[in-house]
Fold each of these.
Amino acid sequence: MSNTAITAITMPKWGLSMVEGKVIEWLVEENTTIAVGDEIMDIETEKIANTFEALDSGVLKRKVAEPDQSLPIGALLGVLAESNISDEDIDAFIKDFQANYTPPEIQEGEESETSYAWVEIDDYRIRYLRMGVDKRNIILIHGFGGDLDRWLFTQGPLSANASVYSLDLPGHGQSTKTIRDGSVAAMASLVTKFMDHVGIDHAHLVGHSLGGAIALQTTINDPDKVDALSLIATAGIGVEINGSYISGFVQAESRREIKPLLQQLVGDPSLINRNLIDDILKYKRLDGVTEALEIIATEFIDRDQQTIDFRNHLASLSIPVHVIWGSADQIIPASHAKNLPGNVNVDVLEGFGHLVQVEAAGEVNKLLQG
Amino acid sequence: MGRKILYQDAINEALDQEMARDDSVIVMGEDVVGGTGASGEMDAWGGVLGVTKGLYGKYGNRIMDSPISESALVGAAVGAAATGMRPVCELMFIDFMGVCFDQIYNQAAKFRYMFGGKATTPVVIRTMYGAGFRAAAQHSQCLYNIFTHVPGLKVVMPSSPYDAKGLLIQAIRDDDPVIFCEHKALYATEGDVPEESYAIPFGEANIVREGDDVTIVALGRMVRFATKAAEALVADGINCEIVDPRTSSPLDEETILESVEATGRLVVVDESNPRCSMATDISSLVSQKGFSSLQAPIEMVTAPHTPVPFSGALEDLYIPSPDKIEAAVRKTAAYGN
Amino acid sequence: MATNLSIEDLLDAYRTMRTIREFEERVHVEFAKGGIPGFVHLYAGEEASATGVCMNLKEDDYIASNHRGHGHCIAKGVEVTGMMSEIYGRGSGTCHGKGGSMHIADLDVGMMGANGIVGGGPPLVCGAGLTAKLRGKGNIALAFFGDGASNQGTTLESMNLATVWKLPVVFVAENNGYAEATASSWSVSCKDISKRAAGFGMPGTTIDGHDFFAVHEATRAAVERARSGGGPSLIECKLDRFFGHFEGDNQKYREPNEVKTIREENDCIKRFSDTITNDSDITVGDLATIDREVKILIDDAVEKAITGTDPEPDKLLTDVYIRY
């Protein structure tokens, strides 16, 4: 090998999978004479932190890499040379090296994350998401087998002029899956505690399906905490419910089993795409979910009948109450929106299914804001 | 979903959570701890690529280094499984199956059947496969098809961190012997993985991408390559559906057949050699049971019928590339048009 | 220095050891610079073993090696320029770039291959010994394997078979203290691997593998026994590796100063050169001349490897079969 007067110190390759290393610190000063094997730098990789020993000898003319810098293998760390080499020559060497150096290819990874928060309530770790800052508070409560993502198209628009919270109920989403008491009463008391923990004195509650029943129960328990109530395709104000959907959802393990069930949630079955199915399967596979859903289901339904009924409480509520339904709901029939007391506002949206706030997000958002 | 972790950390987490959950789960292999009996640190390696790192500190003697004795190691795991433990045994490179295959295919795979249904052998054999590291002919092979051939074994090859964790947990909880094949090139790939435990059932393919024009069935690392090819083909108006079987045994035949029924065209991508491979197996499946759906001959993109060469120049030609997948898709898409 | 080796023999031995050392130290440096692909396992520190053993072998004797095979190749006479090019994956490499560091082989000089499978070599050596015996040409076969392979069924089965068939075979266990990251003091169930020989009905001996003369003498006796129809023997060389299991190994399983101490106190080449410059007419200057020549040889090999060309694409499909 030819002995050039100037030598590059480059990021070493430690092990097969190393693509880059992070400079921890230099262990030698500039203008030190270095022999092969001298410890010159501490480098950290994904798996290994280690001391880099000189592979060549010479005077350390220039430190190029700085502490905390992450560099791909082969990247220039410093320059060794004989002592009589001029700074200009070193500069030229560095310029030339950098111009010719191409880092090894690594795959791209993108980051864009919503930031969730968690609160500890009793034994539960509850995930929630807050959007918007305003004096008005809105809390969105999802239904059976759902999670805060059911409000994907709701929460953003509502947050334009309100502080909007959505949460994962116990046994759902990313909240704790081990459930002691799956009753609507227990969930309602959890919503109250959630408000206390997060510091919400009073709020407009929006509940979907089972979440509607929970919102109703919360209102009945603590009327002072609730400004208004919006109940979307709600449980708890009628008897009938699609029991085979519920038991099928609890038992389903595969895409083939769950897809036709999910298609019952919407008026237009093509809305049930691969991503939604995948997300629900991913949730369903989590340890404890099947058991949690079974516990919750037994508490509010018995085969094709709901075992909770708050219909008689509606007339006595002194806050605005709004019931919204899709006419094509195959889970809880839209007929439950009929013959409600006069203080209840009712909107039935033609052609939409149980997930009306997803399927007809624009219209539902308008109703919620109106 | 949120949290992104590496494929190898997903495997580590699955082992960790299952060891915490069930004290019959034990881990054994060559240098899965690393440093046993030596003068320096224990857990110096945590597996040759660090996949089992940290488990020793948590579980002590439930993770064991083995002498380099693959027959005895794998056989001991099989024996322990048949007598009440749930061993996860690491066969460092899939190529080393050559040393210990008897214990896998004459013993573990056949106990249940030979013994009239009286044996349960919940052993998991984790093993690294795949080319791309200039590791030459004895450390680069894709031999999952050989295990797939053997009745009594389940064979798994996760293509993403999410699948790696969920399929490994399923493998550990599964009562049958499972060969769990990890592609070296996937270890450093990142993806969304829930912190909680979850099991992905075997025999359920993942539809990685939906499309109407051509079905690509791809396995392991090839799923990523197929995705790359599919993304490039969009510009030409060709929409590929990518099906990742996730397990080659059991094989989700229905999802493959349903997809081909919709597209009429099939490209199978398999990093292994072409003869008696997953590529021929899936092609045969579709020509037998989906013949009437086909509008074009099936295309296979595989390695050639050669050992894995060392030289990078040759190895890069050996491995099926996104370019080759793209060409195969174009060919089948153009057929009859 | 009790030896009947000539000055030329001693200088040859020195040259071989130096060549191995220089080769491995350069591979270490070039690997770290990123020029060398794949897995590389270095033999530096163990030179006295390969050299002392192979000096007893003729060109038509066979050796089988393992993943740490560069030293065995050089000692058996494989040409270093081709080896270095092979390690770089070049078309001009010993195996035309298709084998790499772990699979260097040259049957023309009796080198049956480095091996990626631990315990892969000993059975092959039984076969080579069988050929030698049946052809009656007086050649023999010898297996180098590590402490790790001493625990493989294939190795133990081979020792049994070699005795049963009375094969002209020598087993050389190079016990460098570690199978990958695991200590042999733990993983080998008896104190000395050589103790296992008794169970297979063959002589076994453990020697200091840092001592060229001890290695040479032990092998001489075993090779003589094999050539004269006496059957197999087992030699265990206890020695040390200067580098990790593979390049990139953090070696945290070794005490921080372990390698430094070994290099300072038990470098087999230092020991050998001290002995021969004290006890023979060989001078430090003679050795320095060899050092320079070796350096030129290795520099040239690296230069050729770096500037060499990759195999032609069509070579991917060749040499799978002889005819197909």
Amino acid sequence: MATQVTEAAAEEAHVREQTLVHDEIAFANDAKMTARDVDVFYGEKKAVDSVSIDVDSHYVTAFIGPSGCGKSTFLRCFNRMNDTIDIARVQGRIELDGEDIYDPRMDVVQLRARVGMVFQKPNPFPKSIYENIAYGPRIHGLASNKADMDGIVEASLTRAGLWNEVKDRLDDSGTALSGGQQQRLCIARAIAVDPEVILMDEPCSALDPIATAKIEELIEELKGRFAIVIVTHNMQQAARISQRTAFFHLGNLVEYGDTETIFTNPRADRTRDYITGRFG
Amino acid sequence: MTSADVARTGTVDWRSAQMQARIRKRYAKERRFRFLGLGALVFAAGFLLFLLTTIVSDGIGGFQRAEVPLDIEYSATTLGLDPAQMSGDGADYAINRADFRSLVNAAAEAQLGTSEMISEGAWLDVRDRLRGDPSLLGSRERVWVVAAPEVDLLAKGQISFDVPAQRRAVSQEMINQYVVLNDRGDVQLSLNTGFLTKADSTSSELAGIWGALLGSLLTMAITLALSFPIGVMTAVYLEEYAPRNRFTDMIEVSINNLAAVPSIIFGLLGLSVFLNTFGMPRSAPVVGGVTLALMTLPVIVIASRVSLQSVPPSIRDAALGIGASRLQVILHHILPVALPGILTGTIIGLSRALGETAPLLLIGMRAFVSDVPGGVTDPATALPVQIFLWSDEVGRGFVEKTSAAIMVLLAVLLSMNGVAIYLRNKFERRW
Amino acid sequence: MNSTTAHTVKSFDDDLRLLRSMIGEMGGLARSQVNEAITALLSHDVELAKRVVEADKRIDELEMEAESFAISIIARRSPLAQDLREVIAALKIGAVIERIGDYGKNIAKRVEALSSSGYRGASAGVEQIGSMASTLVDDAMRSFAERDPFLARAVSDGDEAIDDYYESLFQTLLGEIAEDPENTAPATHLIFIIKNLERIGDHATNIAEMVHYSATGEHLEDRPKGGDATGLSLPL
């Protein structure tokens, strides 16, 4: 038992000093969001340990890593969803366009409109399809009249590739759609408030391959218009849709680089072992 | 599969007599268990049925009353009424002062031989007739007046002639007179409208439930108006805003304990705080309502919290994720989903409060109140208290009144539950 | 550089091992083809040459087997990182070995014509370049078997020696033709043979490069392949 503890401690000390950031990212300077030395604590437990990362506005950035590596927790720092958990405590600095989002003057409601989120389980409101999309623009006052709102709803659903499937039943319940449609509805709901960044927390983990492919196609289309950060357990998915990949392990950011390099020639041993299925 | 398992394959003879016996035994056990459950159900249903039939068969008579005919002459002189007074503002006062009792009793003695055959309050109906139509003054008409309680019992066949005279509640003379009247066809049973429109009375044939029913409804209105908003707000605060710490844990434990406190304690609280300290009116629905609201609050808080907790967190996340404020999350998303559960809890709490007797006794709602309450500060009784009071009365006529009152109470409870089911289905419309 | 930890899915390791052993077997076969073709050539053993031609079919079969197995691994296991590099390398090395086998067959096919011509010149040189090519193939296959990027680099360097030797031998054979036009036909055969051996050296280098990339993820810096004899002036 004692040796295990010291081994773990030694390993932790070993990795903390090095996050392997590939040169092409380290010297890029088009960051939409930057995190510096971010720690997240759940009570006494440190879930995220001194993570620094830049999220580029033109790319899809994928966070990969085994369960409990802190990637989802870290993702939820970007729109301060961790605020809703009593015992969660965030240290360090996260900036959106150079603005500290944990500054007391930052309005968290506006932040979450600017940094949208799509969750693991499709979670449409138990309301009509129309109401699901219109809710965000309404509470933020983005539509001045009904025609405006109709326009936003149609545009959002069209962008999410759902318009043709639901245009004749906008009054039906959002929860009556299939799982894949529900998730696209949630993406449409997120883009209806015109965010700058979209965070996706394992958006396809509850979907079948066809529905997954449709979501991936949608992400492809949204890329460039929004900065997209996606947490996924599916490495093939990360390889398919992202341009940047960050590998997390035990709360550390182990390696961050171009997706192509990460999946063909990862530099860190732990990254390599993880993506080739050698974690023991 | 291990090699040992493989080796065993086929060695068991599932068709052997021993195995067949096991199967039969197992089936028999299953059957017995099922019959036990069915038996329990039948037993419970039987009890309920017995209770209901007893109440209904006893109580149905409470909605009827015996009447005997009297020829009444509305003589202005006997009544001491001046026809000139019969219109205008003084009319009511004049009629209230008139001596209808003597008029009716005289008529009864003349026509039936004794005034004991009619109710002590028979003259009230006669007075109300004249009040309704002042032109009757000076004329003569045949009026069916309320019979005496003994006649009532006889007419409903509740007194057996076979019982020895000294153990009967009715004298032999009375019976003889009743038989004469009955043979003439001068005894009739008709709907007791007074039971549903009047308040309590010392005479069973005149006692009504409306006063108690209205008292109960007023009390419930106060209870609902206080406990629902306070209970729901408390639950929302505890679930959505309160930090998790020792203090909120303590509050939670206290609320759970309060829900288990015997209701009579709440009555004592009402007595000492509302009546003695604040000096609120005794026997009034407002005090009853506040006291029962205190009793109902923990039930509503607990039910509402459970209902709020059962709202899927994904809905909360979704709303927060697109930038809804905490208030918007609660008002737009959480409460609508939790409402059916909250309403169910509220109705359960109110149903319990409606049937509550002990705390109301302590705050004075057991007083004899012969007037229908006109507001929440007027003295009133409540249905369960009225039932309790009547069950304690010596008059034999009150037996059926008690059962009839129970039927009214059950009807109110059932309709409240009906409303609850309706509301739940309405709000539970699943999208 | 190579991780020794096993995959969580054990049969993935078995698959990779089997693929490596198929490629290894092909490599061994190809090398002995080259050796036997040279032996047949030097000893004018036409029978042996025929056997060499026959045996090439086995290499072709093995190549097809290895190719479909590699494709099935990609389809079933979705290998990534060094696993992906290794499977792709095996796929490409298989094709290269098949080419080496073809060269061996080509050499063997010329044995009959040469032995009937009675020309016996330059045999020592041919034996020398033959053994150099064979050694290079051997080293390349060893670097593959051991995933040894250093040995792979050595193979790449060793190819230069073959290229130089090929150029001098080419010069010699041209001289023989100039000396006696009778020698034209057999010397041309020999030129083709040494050209084949030089190409085998190049292919061994290719194998080494793939091994290096598979093992390290880095490409060996490209070395211009010699042996095209373009720098030589033909005595016209």
